[in-house]
Amino acid sequence: MKFKEIETVDPCKDVVIYWAALSDVPEAVQNRAREIDGQEYDGEGFGLCVGYDLAKKEFFIFTDEDPATGGNIYYVNKDGDRRWFRVEIGAELTKQVFDACDRINTYVDTPQGYAIQKTVQFDRDFGLVLAKKDDPTYPFTSWMFKETAEGRRDYVWSHCYVDEKTAEKAFANAIAVHTEHERTFYSRKVKVTAWGAGKKPSIRGQLATAKEALTEKFNTQRQQKDRGTR
């Protein structure tokens, strides 16, 4: 089983939630997912859910509350629902995922593995970042982020670019638009993060307060992904 990338991040009141995409899941799990969706089975639909406890400053992997499965990875079926499965994740894979989450947590990377190159932050708890990664199709991206009362960033409204010149021009234009209305200051924060292998027993219990928002956000992202592949 392999870690691909952190697809999205959802800051909540007491926890930050990271959705990690997986590949090469065990064949037995893939077969069970095929039984669920039949011909509409999506081999890219597997992932795991990581939380960062803001009080304990600790990462953990969510597990399903059903004692019959105790699932720690999920498959998103054709209806957008998550079906949970139990697999052995292992220390190496866990570290890879936690490290990727931590790089977002400390403002080094954005979701989807883009390394932040420039950050511009405005007065009203939002800002812009320009980021890049080794991607043959879209090596540059810009994001707007909103900062929560707890100081966490929620990265939204990303735009991808095929070359650096186009990305720099679009980023400068975005700064100019916002600067007309906002006093700007530049921020490059680095935060020390202590984390371990804490666990939470129930994904449903932990996400209860954020369920509607997360479901709506996920469905929107899935629709955008579907449109992009057509």
Beta strand %: 25-35%
Which structural class is indicated by helix and strand composition? Answer: alpha+beta
How does the overall form come out from the CA principal axes?
Answer: globular
Can you give the helix content as a percent range? Answer: 25-40%
Number of domains: 2
Query: Any idea what the radius of gyration is?
Result: 18 Å
Let me know the largest β-sheet: 7 strands, mixed
* H and E string: EEHEEEEHEEEEHEEHH
Low-confidence stretches: 184-211
Terminal CA distance reads 28 Å
Number of strands: 12
State mean pLDDT (0 to 100 scale). Answer: 81
Number of helices: 5
Q: Can you walk me through this structure?
A:
There is one protein chain. By secondary structure, this protein is of the alpha+beta class. The protein has two domains: 2-103 and 194-229, no CATH class; 109-185, no CATH class. Helices cover 28% and strands 33% of the residues. The chain has five helices and twelve strands. It has helices at 27-37, 91-105, 164-179, 203-206, 211-229, and strands at residues 2-11, 15-23, 46-53, 58-61, 73-76, 82-85, 115-122, 126-132, 140-147, 153-161, 184-185, 198-199. The strands form two sheets. Strands 1, 2, 3, 4, 5, 6 and 12 form a seven-stranded mixed beta sheet that branches. A five-stranded antiparallel beta sheet has the order 10-9-8-7-11, covered by helices on one side. A hairpin with a 7-residue loop joins β8 (126-132) and β9. It is globular and about 55 Å long. It starts with a strand and ends with a helix. The model is unreliable at 184-211 (pLDDT under 50).
